[in-house]
Amino acid sequence: MTKAAMDAENNGRPHPHRGRYIYETLRKQILTLQLKPGAPLDEVSLASQFQLSRSPVRDALARLTSEGLVTTLPNRTTLVTPFEIGDFPKYVSALDLIQRAVTRLAAQHRTEADLVSILQADDIYMQALVGGDFDSMSEANKSLHMAIARAASNPYMTGYYERLLGEGQRLLHLHFNHTMTSPTATRLGRDHAGIIDAIVRGDGDEADKLAHEHTMLFQQRFLDYMRQNMTESMEIL
Fold first, then answer.
1. How far apart are CA 30 and CA 57, in angstroms?
2. Of the residues 45, 80, 115, which one is the last residue of a structural domain?
3. Beta strands in the chain (DSSP E)
4. Are 77 and 67 contacting, i.e. CB atoms less than 8 angstroms apart?
5. What is the CATH number of the domain that holds 19?
6. pLDDT tens digits, 180-212
7. What's the CA dihedral at 167, 37, 15, 43 to 10 degrees?
8. Could you tell me the pTM of the whole model?
9. Is residue 151 one of the residues assigned to a domain?
10. For 98-142, what is each residue's pLDDT tens digit?
11. Into how many domains does the chain fold?
């Protein structure tokens, strides 16, 4: 959308959230891999593309950097954070530990209001799943897990978990697409049903166990995608 179009939508007034618009646009392009890992992000070029000054572009890039989606190198080059396949086991290990912890705590500390939020988030996820909307599925999946994390009542864990989920959304987009379209892939279903049931019942041990299985399922689906879609020369761990 050009600046003129943005101004027209606001009856000729300047757009009040320029930085947010740039942030949301770039974030979607990164998460859906329209902007590939390692792609350069130049402030001047982006300012020209959005027909805005460099200040809101800089603000948007700073926010994306805080989420781990954008990286600035020592030579001050800014780019979409690369994904190294060799780091995937480390990512899964970190995700597994924090996901088990917040899910166990959610089962132990959730309130009735938390349960309402979790169930609503699961409904939104299932709607995206039924509609085959990959972009919405990755966002809805994150929202559901964040609703669980907030029920854990530990803001330190919640903040770290949110960053991990954000960094993993690009991987989710790949494996959602693969799982939904490949005739040989394991189909997606009510992947969160058991976890939610354990939280509702207040069963921390079961919630922990199912959260671990959920992480391992994500790992397996992603590795299946890699084996079927990457070059034979690339090592799959």
1. 15
2. 80
3. 70-72, 78-80
4. no
5. 1.10.10.10
6. 555 444 455 577 999 999 999 999 999 999 999
7. 120
8. 0.74
9. yes
10. 999 999 999 999 999 999 999 999 999 999 888 877 778 888 999
11. 2
